[in-house]
Amino acid sequence: MNRPAVRDFALLVLRFVLGAVFVGRGYRRWFETGMRESASQFAQWGVPQPRVSAYLAGSVELIGGALLIIGLLTTLVAGALALLAAAATYFVHLEHGFFSESGGVEYPLVLTVVLLIVVVFGAGRASLDGVLTRG
């Protein structure tokens, strides 16, 4: 299993799934829930600067998720999304315990760790980063 082609395929699948999750979350925040409602939720959760935070989170989720899918600026984007997921863990989910069905830290913690894996291992060769760095 320690073959470059297997690793690159695994990173491609991982990036695609993570990207789709974040694109979906960003899309919902921007176009379904709306920024006014998202900012209101952020204020209820005690997130600092809720309006700015809502716009920042929605934008980073939507654009960052798309960049993860295509594999462009992957480690930078995965790092930013990991910080966003860690902040969500702290501000929103920590007080609800562990399990996700009660709103706990389980889901954002998994997202944070998987994003850190992408930061460590990069995008792989099946990405725009991989294509642009080949010599």
List the helices and strands and how they pair.
Elements: H1 4-33, H2 35-45, H3 50-70, H4 74-93, H5 106-121, H6 128-133
Helix pairs in contact: 1-2, 1-3, 1-5, 2-3, 3-4, 4-5
Overall spatial form: globular
Measured by DSSP, the beta-strand proportion falls in: under 5%
Number of strands: 0
- Spell the H/E element sequence: HHHHHH
Poorly predicted runs are none
What is the domain total for the residues? Answer: 1
Radius of gyration: 16 Å
Total DSSP helices:
6
* Largest beta-sheet characterization: none
Global structural class: mainly alpha
Which range best describes the helical content: under 10%, 10-25%, 25-40%, 40-55%, 55-70% or over 70%? over 70%
Termini distance?
26 Å
The overall average pLDDT, rounded, is 95
List keywords for this structure.
about 140 residues; mainly alpha; 6 helices; about 75% helix; about 0% strand; DoxX; transmembrane; transmembrane helix; membrane
Describe, in plain words, how this protein is organized in 3D.
Its main location: membrane. It is a multi-pass membrane protein. This is DoxX family protein. The structure is a single chain. The chain has 135 residues and is an all-alpha fold. It has one domain (4-133). It has six helices and no strands. The chain has helices at 4-33, 35-45, 50-70, 74-93, 106-121, 128-133. The mean pLDDT is 95.
